[in-house]
């Protein structure tokens, strides 16, 4: 079980400095998608917000999606899926420049997406800035930090994350990159790439 530490967080991008990192290294479909970038993440909270930090080294990076709730998974993207109970799970997805998608669903096709007002409450800071760009090839390194308020968990009336238990998985993907890849923090046992599989989420606990 991953313990998500409670911190007194300064503003982004420094909220998770010193928080231990986890590796996103499960290449569950390596036979079809052998390329695997180097990816780590850190998670912490302050009761009112979930903080996530991602560090990525990869050979190709693109940021073509221009708006929130667009197909960010086609760009160079990181994702965090989280479930508090059996009612469904949240999928938070971020491109490398911080364009975001948020949905809540019980199954993959049955999504409720956050509106623009909710999306504006999710703070993001990317080392690549906010401007879209075509694919860049080379020794690319980028970082992304996000702060997700409890009010963004739109199907739950949360007032604090203190002491909560949940299930979670974290991903790195880039469906339309010249080297597409589908990595996860916790292993996934499906024939084809699919992140919408809450049965493979790992347990996490928010420090009280």
TrEMBL record:
InterPro entries: Carb-bd_dom_fam9 (IPR010502). Residues 20-206 form the Carbohydrate-binding domain. Pfam families: CBM9_2 (PF16011). It comes from the Bacteria. One of its GO terms (biological process) is carbohydrate catabolic process. GO terms for molecular function: carbohydrate binding; hydrolase activity, hydrolyzing O-glycosyl compounds. This is Carbohydrate-binding domain-containing protein. It comes from Candidatus Rikenella faecigallinarum.
